[in-house]
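sorry to bug you again but im stuck and you know this stuff better than me. theres a chain ive been looking at and ive put its sequence and its fold in token form underneath. id like you to explain what the token line says about the fold, in plain words if possible. anything you notice is useful, everything is just below.
___
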Amino acid sequence: MNIKRLILEGEGVQLDFKKTITHLHKIAKTMVAFANNKGGKLLIGVLDDGSIKGVKSEDEEKYMLTQAATHYCNPPLEPVFTEYTVDGVIVLVAEIAESDTKPHYALGEDDKWWVYIRVKDKSVLASKIVIDVLRKETRG
């Protein structure tokens, strides 16, 4: 995988940049949105403008992502991690596969479970109609 080429494509339906993981609620929202769509990649250590900063501790980032995937996503998700060295720094890629048990819910800061989908480069709250469609896709 060519990380620089991926970054040049910019954030989108299947790609999101994060400088670092700080809020488990927020990252769970993105992971759930990927799982409810066609899957996606989180590039950790990359700023929104595409500049590569790298991660301080890939183990800490993996821990945060795993915590979010396990405790803030329902049903839980299993990100697949790959580390890349780009310009002397480490970029952590967390891949979220498209789920076959949709819809997935993310725990919000209000302690309620919400369904998110990906629209362009944003994770947005799914409407009741969209949730029904996701359920039908799963039963398919």
